[in-house]
Design brief:
alpha+beta, six-stranded mixed beta sheet, four-stranded antiparallel beta sheet, 53% helix
Length: 455
C-alpha cells in the first residue's frame, strides 16, 4: 500500500494492495455468482485465499459425489495473487467448465476492480476535502489518470464477459438439446418395449380367437340341422341370442384387431422418431421422417386442424435422424402453439439445384419484422413466462447449419409464417462416394398431395 508522508504538505492516499479479498468484496456479491456457476453445470464453485483456505463456497451435493475435474484460476490484485477461483465438475465437460470458470473469474475481477475504485475514490475524497486548491488540482489530475486506467480495464473486462456469455449461451443450448434428445429417445424406447411385447400376443390371440369362433359357429349350425326333436335347443338358442352373438363376434374381432394395429403403429412411429436402434449417421427419407414426427405429435394437433402434405420424391439424405426429427418437431409444434383453432399447415418438399428444400407454411398470426430478426436467438421467446425456453428455433438453426444447410423465415403480420429449410446434398454425395452408400434416383420429381382435416 502506497502512502504519502503524514504531514500537512502531503495527501495520504490508499491504493489498497494491503487489503484482503474479504475487505474488498462481500459475500452478498460472491455467492450469487457461485450459485449461477453451479446451476449452469458445475458440481462446486469456490473462492479460496492464497493459502488454500475456503472463503466462499457453493455446491450441488448430488453432483459433488462424482467430481472428476477441478479447475483453479488465480485472482490478481495490483499484480499479486489474492485468491483463487475453483470450479469442480465432470471431466467429460472440461471445455465447458473451462469457459464457465473463465466467465466467473472475469465477473469477480470486474466487481473487485469496481469496488477498489470506489474505495480509492472515497478515501481520497475524504482526505482532500480540506486541502488547498493547488493540492486539489494535483489530486484531480491523479484521479483522472487513475479513472482513465480503470475505465479502460473495465471496458476490456466487460467485453470479455460479453464474449464468454455468448459462448456459454451456445454451449448451454447444445447441452439442453442433447438432454432433450436423450429424454425423447428414452421415452420412445421405454414405450416401445412396454407396449410392443403385449400387443404382439394380443393380436395373435385375437386372430386365434376368430378361428375358434368360426369352428364353434359351424358346430352350432350342425346341431341345429340334425333330425331329432330340437325344440328345447331352439328355445335356448333364441334366449341366449345366439344369432346376435354370431353376427357381432366378427365385428368385435375386427374392431379389436384394428385397435391393436393402431397401437402398434403408434409404437412404431414413436420408436422410429427416436431412432433408438439407428447409428448416429444413417440414410433417411425426409418425407417419411416428417410423417413420423406428425404421428408423434398427434395428441398436440387440434381436432379442427388441417395438414396438407405436398411431397415430391427426394433423394436420401445422410444425417443423424434424431436431430433432423427434432428440427421438424420444433417447427411444427411452434405452428400448433401459435394457432390453436383453425390451423392450416402446409408442408412441401422438393429437390432442386442440388438441395433438398422443405417448407412449413401456417396461417397463424405472423411475425413482425423486428421479431423476425430475432427468432433464432438463444432464449428469445414471445410466449408467456414459464411456457417456453426460447431454444426451440435456436436448436433447429444450429442443427441445420451443422449440416451445411440454411433455415429462413418468411412472414408478415396477420399472414402466417413460412420456415424454409435447405439441405445441400454435397455432404451426402461425398459420404456415398467414400463409404459406398447407394442413393435413390429422383427421375420424375412428381408431387403427391395428401390432405388431412379433422386429425
Amino acid at each position: 500500500m502506497e502512502k504519502g508522508q503524514n504531514n500537512p504538505g502531503n495527501i495520504e492516499y490508499v491504493i489498497g494492495s494491503e487489503k484482503t479479498l474479504k475487505e474488498i468484496i462481500s459475500e452478498a456479491e460472491v455467492i450469487p455468482l457461485l450459485k449461477s456457476a453451479v446451476r449452469a453445470g458445475a458440481s462446486k464453485a469456490m473462492v479460496i485465499n492464497p493459502d488454500g483456505k475456503i472463503i466462499w463456497t457453493y455446491s450441488n451435493h448430488i453432483k459433488d459425489r462424482t467430481v472428476s475435474e477441478t479447475l483453479t484460476l488465480p485472482l490478481y490484485l495490483e499484480g499479486e495473487i489474492v485468491g483463487n477461483v475453483v470450479i469442480k465438475g465432470d471431466s467429460k465437460e472440461r471445455d465447458y467448465l473451462k469457459g464457465l470458470s473463465g466467465m466467473l473469474l472475469d465477473a469477480l475481477n470486474i466487481i473487485i476492480n469496481n469496488n477498489l475504485k470506489r474505495m480509492l475514490t472515497t478515501e481520497i475524497h475524504t482526505t482532500v476535502v480540506n486541502r488547498s486548491y493547488e493540492e486539489l488540482v494535483e489530486t484531480n489530475t491523479r484521479l483522472k489518470i487513475s479513472e482513465a486506467r480503470y475505465r479502460e480495464l473495465a471496458q476490456n473486462l466487460e467485453k470479455k464477459v460479453q464474449e464468454r456469455t455468448e459462448e456459454l449461451k451456445h454451449v448451454y443450448a447444445r447441452l439442453l438439446q442433447q438432454e432433450k434428445m436423450a429424454s425423447v429417445g428414452q421415452l420412445a424406447a421405454g414405450v416401445a418395449h412396454e407396449i410392443n411385447n403385449p400387443m404382439g400376443f394380443i393380436t395373435s390371440n385375437i386372430n386365434t380367437f376368430g378361428k375358434y369362433i368360426s369352428k364353434l359357429k359351424e358346430m352350432i349350425e350342425f346341431y341345429r340341422t340334425i333330425n331329432h326333436d330340437s325344440s328345447k335347443a331352439e328355445k335356448l338358442y333364441e334366449r341366449l341370442k345366439i344369432d346376435f352373438i354370431m353376427n357381432d363376434i366378427p365385428h368385435l374381432i375386427r374392431q379389436s384387431i384394428d385397435g391393436a394395429e393402431r397401437v402398434k403403429k403408434i409404437v412404431s412411429d414413436l420408436k422410429g422418431f427416436s431412432h433408438i436402434d439407428d447409428a448416429c449417421e444413417t440414410m433417411i427419407d425426409i418425407n417419411r421422417e416428417i410423417d413420423r414426427t406428425i404421428s408423434v405429435l398427434a395428441h398436440e394437433i387440434p381436432e379442427d386442424a388441417g395438414i396438407i402434405r405436398d411431397y415430391h420424391e427426394l433423394p436420401e439424405f445422410i444425417c443423424n435422424p434424431a436431430l433432423i426429427c427434432q428440427v421438424f418437431l420444433n417447427i411444427i409444434l411452434n405452428a400448433i402453439q401459435t394457432k390453436r383453432e383453425g390451423l392450416k399447415l402446409t408442408i412441401s418438399t422438393v429437390f432442386e439445384d442440388g438441395n433438398i428444400r422443405i417448407r412449413f407454411s401456417d396461417n397463424g398470426p405472423g411475425i413482425t419484422e423486428d421479431l423476425r430478426k430475432r427468432v433464432f436467438e438463444p432464449f428469445f421467446t414471445t410466449k408467456d413466462v414459464g411456457k417456453g425456453t426460447g431454444l426451440g428455433l435456436t436448436v433447429a438453426y444450429e442443427i441445420i447449419t451443422a449440416y451445411g444447410g440454411t433455415i429462413d423465415v418468411e412472414s408478415l403480420p396477420g399472414e402466417g409464417a413460412t420456415f424454409v429449410i435447405r439441405l445441400p446434398l454435397k455432404r451426402t454425395q461425398k459420404m456415398i462416394h467414400d463409404t459406398g452408400y447407394r442413393i435413390k434416383n429422383n427421375q420424375n420429381n412428381k408431387p403427391f398431395i395428401v390432405h388431412y382435416g379433422d386429425i
